Amino acid sequence: MELRRLKTDQPDLASAVDLQIELVQLQRRVQSRVPLPSIRLEPDYLNELLANPPILQFEHLPIDWSDMRFLLRATASTMRTHEAIEDPHFRIAEMLSRDSERLPIVARTWYEGVRPDAPSLDPEEAGLEAVLQQAMRPFLTRAADAIMARIDFRGWTKGTCPLCSGEPDLAVITPAADRLLICARCSARWRFHQLACAFCENSDRKRITSFTSRDGRYRLYACDVCQRYLKAYDARQASRPVMPAVDSVATLPLDAAAMQKGYR
Ligand SMILES: [Zn+2]
Ligand SMILES: [Zn+2]
Question: Which one, of 32, 34, 26, lies nearest residue 75 by Cα?
């Protein structure tokens, strides 16, 4: 409903909204039957793991491989319809969705590839990050929700996700003016410095450029040290909570503005 409202309010986002609606619907078909992750869900144990992150290892993820094959194929095909994936990458995704030996290897490499010491995807599969991230989402968010219900990440002050080591792609400013980062991969949320850069931890106010969207709903923080930026939903005067699936699309004009200024 929120996505459809966004389309009415901002017709120029129609194509991006349609793609997002289809992706959300695909993920919903699988989401309801994803089981709990195979990790001990005890607060003390989980807090112990926080000393040596990430908490969530690939082996813990509740992946059903026939669901994963379906999601990969359907996600790639939806993205192709909306011109969000190149043809060669689409073909590789399709091949991979039929290769039950290769797929788990690629999924693991993608999942673990965010760690600095980990190998990255093979060159031919390197263009599949966006597809894999969408296809893996139901399994990752299910695992993250189960863990977040048991621990609060107090004491975690880094810019990367304590659960999966992913990077945030959105933040939310709470009514108490805290800033919570939201993982782009598993949607885990954790509190972070109100202003500092989540990517390089620069906290020099003079080297952070911040601006808001015209309607005041969103804020963008751009770092003049590493040139990266992060968007935030300002929930202080908002009528609804943050909804990453909606807010990531609603902020596409902010992305364009930041990129025009040379940030990435
Ligand atoms: Zn994460
Ligand atoms: Zn930075």
Answer: 26
